[in-house]
Amino acid sequence: MQNKELLVDLYSIPGMTEYRLKGLLAAFQHPEAIFQAEKEELTAVPGIVPELAQAITSYQRSAETAARLKTLRTLGVKIIDFLDPEFPENLRNLPHMPPVLFIRGEIKSDDRQAVAVIGTRRPSHYGQRVAERLAAELVRAGLTVVSGLARGIDTCAHRAALTAGGRTIAVLGSGIDVIYPPENRQLAEKIAGFGALVSEFPPGTGPLAMNFPKRNRLISALSRAVIAVEAGEKSGVLSTCSWAREQERPVFAVPGRIDEERSLGTNRLIQQGARLITGIQEVLESLGMSAPAETRQPVEIQSEEKQVLEVVGNDPVHIDELCAATGMPIPELMTLLFQLEVKGLVRQLPGKFFVRT
């Protein structure tokens, strides 16, 4: 571990870039050898100017870097470079392969069978429900769910994968020690325990806008296919799908209403050749896999529950509307709605709204 920590030291040197670090690692194989090299040996590497070589040979670890390394140790972060046998195989052929990965949790060999589920940060209730269903079905089929830990669809996909007992990988647009958005810190902890958090950015890096296109290429590269659930015309989801096509990964898109702004991007993806998806069967077929046998027992619904379920639709409906439509008093209606929620048929939203799952 100590040897790999030197990669953080190298990143902390002013003027060090991914390209230059990759060249140094290719030339010297190990971080220690880079620091032990003579200035003339360093400048022989393409991109290493005399000023940078001097900074490397005279480097002294700062208190700030020491503190960040201490944080990485506390979090149990693993640092690997592209020469490491543990470096994910499906990243090795990237034209702009990251020289270093910071991993919290574990990337297993089975995670090569992964599918990305991505979408807008401001999804509709329909989009949330579809993302949750697809992610849950994917993990039940033995696949890992990859996403970007963003608000909205990404969060739904990660949570649904964990709830279904599966594995999920979150690719960050920040340093491994900077969780964004901050409200997903608890979710990030769970992902680290049942999957992995992955970042190519040095510790302490904030969630800068320029980081996310780079993050997007890793999301698609770590996946065998990409599913776009909802996306506007300028959504970063389109960037991920563009990377996926370049990496020869199949792209799937959930169709949406033509007058819905957050479906304009996904509908356009379908126009441009993305495969329309209605369930994971299309994804499994493209990967040469078959769907697992359905083992769930049918849910028993009482007549009163059925009456309520017929009124609850795909769009949120308020308790007052349900009361008027069914003619039931609110206490009885709330009891039936709770029973339907326990059976996984209805979900309560803030403000006493209800929607089908």
From TrEMBL:
Residues 293-352 form the DprA winged helix domain. It holds the Pfam family WHD_DprA. Residues 79-287 form the Smf/DprA SLOG domain. InterPro entries: DprA, DprA_WH, DrpA_SLOG, RuvA_2-like, WH-like_DNA-bd_sf. It comes from the Bacteria. Belongs to the DprA/Smf family. PANTHER family: PROTEIN SMF (PTHR43022:SF1). This is DNA-protecting protein DprA. It comes from candidate division WOR-3 bacterium.
